[in-house]
């Protein structure tokens, strides 16, 4: 897969990933949530943060 360098595509990608995260978060039942579920959510946020950093770095080097 080619890196996303277009800023509009980057924002769209991040919005889509955030929407997925919010859907997963909304679907979680606090009564039955396991530690693994919380770990998965944390990993999703870490992945999203990493992607944001990658996009920012790409944009800084192309400006």
Question: What do you see in this structure?
Answer:
- The chain has 63 residues and is mostly helical.
- The chain contains 2 helices and no strands.
- It is elongated.
- The mean pLDDT is 90.
Brief rundown of the structure:
The chain contains two helices and no strands. The protein has 63 residues and is mainly α.
Any descriptors?
single chain; 63 residues; 2 helices; 0% strand
Distance between the termini: 23 Å
Name the helix and strand elements from N-terminus to C-terminus, one letter apiece. Answer: HH
Summarize the main sheet. Answer: none
Beta-strand segment tally: 0
Radius of gyration: 14 Å
Q: Which blocks of ≥5 consecutive residues have pLDDT under 50?
A: none
Tally of DSSP helical segments: 2
**What portion of the residues fall into strands of 2 or more residues?**
under 5%
Helicity range of the residues?
over 70%
Q: Oligomerization state of this entry?
A: single chain
Please, what is the average pLDDT?
90
Give me the secondary-structure topology.
Blueprint: H1 7-27, H2 35-62
Helix pairs in contact: 1-2
């Amino acid at each position: 897969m080619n890196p996303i360098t277009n800023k509009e595509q980057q924002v769209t990608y991040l919005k889509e990933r955030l929407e997925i995260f919010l859907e997963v978060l909304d679907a979680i039942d606090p009564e039955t949530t396991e530690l693994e579920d919380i770990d998965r959510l944390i990993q999703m946020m870490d992945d999203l943060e990493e992607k944001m950093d990658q996009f920012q770095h790409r944009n800084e080097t192309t400006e």
